[in-house]
Amino acid sequence: MRQTRIWLILLLSVVAITARASGDWPTRYTFGNGVEVGLKGLLQYDGNDFGNDRLPDGTPVFDDAHAWRRKEFNLYVSKKGVFEINAGYDFQARAWLDNYLAVETPAGRFRAGQFKTPYGYEQIFSDTRTLTIERTLVSDRITIGRGIGVQVAGDAGPLSYAVGAFNGNGTNLTFNDDEGFLTVARVAATPWKRGEHDRWSVGVNGFTGEDRAAPVAPELGFTGNREKYEDPRNSCLNEVLERRTGIPLTLSIVYMEVARRAGLHMDGVNFPGHFLVRCPQAHSAHLVIDPFHAGALLSEHNCRLLLQKHVGSEVAFSRSLLAPATRDQILVRMLLNLKRIYVHMRSFPQARDVTELLLALTPSALSELRDRGLLAYQLNDVTGALKDLQAYLKLSSMSEPDKETKAEHQQIWEHVKTLRRRVAALN
Questions:
Q1: For residue 224, which phi and psi values (nearest 5 degrees)?
Q2: Helix or strand or coil: residue 89?
Q3: Distance of alpha carbon 318 from its chain centroid, rounded?
Q4: In the chain, at which end, N or C, are there fewer CB atoms within 10 A of the end residue's CB?
């Protein structure tokens, strides 16, 4: 990334030097032969602050969010009616934008590279030409976005057309994985036009491809259990399969297993606060899926907002948060969810059973040894509590504790002294 920025600075310097005498300084310069060199940029910052949106218990209905949306940079070289070369990069999303070579011929405009597929009226325009800061929700959900491919476009009388073949994977919110080509076509007519911006256009578009990563939730009836999120049955796979509802983790496990049986490998993602799924075989390295929300596909920006929603500013976003989770990590997270729910319900026998399983998976986890001892304490299992808590204090004292840990050790030591008095009284 550092090298990329250095190259961009050098390019800016070259354009600045060559365009010094131009009236379009410093972003564009036109040579005597009609060739134009230019720079474009787009900075977009989203600030969302909601007021009077709290429930009676004080819980906010909407989460305030502040984040950069786009940091786009484009360099282009073109000659009107002859050719255009464009290179674009978004430093916020860390993703390449439109990067292509286009050539004008009497038969039409041929373009090759990565660019937006000709599907959806709003999608064929740049971000700066849309009427609002974001495209409509319908457009974002049904369009394909950018792809790598070739396209020919032109006019045939009153009609305009565009036909292309792409690599099969859009980079927007939709996904098509046919391991071949995605063909897209659009035909439009403009019956009425006045000036440059006032017009009435009618168009149709379509595409062909096989979407093997379509959400399984709507088809099989699986939904996220928002109403009773803390129900322990949401963390038990047999209950999830029977009731067709669960939490992000269990729905992700179902999603991955269905994908495996369909011949598609999926990885779980131990994302903070909300378990996700990713497809490592996709051309895009950032294809992240949220089975809890009907298999929604998340961009990096969506993941940043999701992280902020669940943990606030406590954890900074990095791509390592989207690393694949191992089977043991998935099992541990499921058991930790169950233990937390059972403790909250004061179902201490079930919580201790879950803790036994956690210790079987992670024998060196001192926190689980401590929790098993504390649960035994709550259940009046004096022998078990004394054994675990004494072992915890002995093992944890081998490293230098911080202030918070010292306070915890002092509290547990008080429990140990109480238990020893009970044992002495029994004797």
A1: -75, 135
A2: strand
A3: 11
A4: C
